[in-house]
What we know:
- The strands form three sheets. The protein has a seven-stranded antiparallel beta sheet. A three-stranded antiparallel beta sheet has the order 1-11-12, with no helix packed on it. Strands 7-8 form a two-stranded antiparallel sheet.
- Helix content is 13%, strand content 38%.
- The chain has four helices and twelve strands.
- It starts with 35 loop residues before the first helix and ends with a strand.
- The protein is globular.
- By secondary structure, the protein is mainly beta.
Amino acid sequence: MSQPASPSEVPPVPSHASRPESQPESQPESPSSVDPEAFKAALSRFAAGVVVVTAHETHETSDTASGDDVGMTATAFLSVSLEPPLVLVSLRRQARMREVLDAQPLWAVSLLSQSQRHVAGRFAIPGRVSDRLMFADVPHQHGAISGAPLVGGALATLECRTHQIVEAGDHSLVIGEVLSANLPSPAGQPLLHFRGRYRSLA
């Protein structure tokens, strides 16, 4: 076994050898200088499709399992990947749906048609009292895979399983793996959201 070199055997460091450079101190992040109202106004000029995100929230009791259907309107929805099929929806961290998806990994998305403004408006109401009443007179059926409500007459419906959740500012980006895709009303026109209002293509 080789013996460690004695101090006299250690070769001297050349005088021209580079020495570690001092690292600059990290600077604290400066607050954004963008005016919030200007930011909102700019993004309102981006026309977006309107969807309803739904899930079936299960409550375990001492002798039975019960649950409520939960839904919310969203416009921050997009496709992420084809292989595997992934979609993304952005939810406020304080949103009820965000709380539900912490416990329920299965959910669904219904892409609304232009004739479904009333559905979009209903599920966008803040501070609603009863989730159950929200579905009372909205035609829907429960997905075979997710158990989540699928809005009748929607252009398309997707059943998803949560793949990943990314926290970003005051929102959570929920990425879902698509488990099923159907086209209840493929010939319809989409409902759009532009400058704070629901609009149609025509």
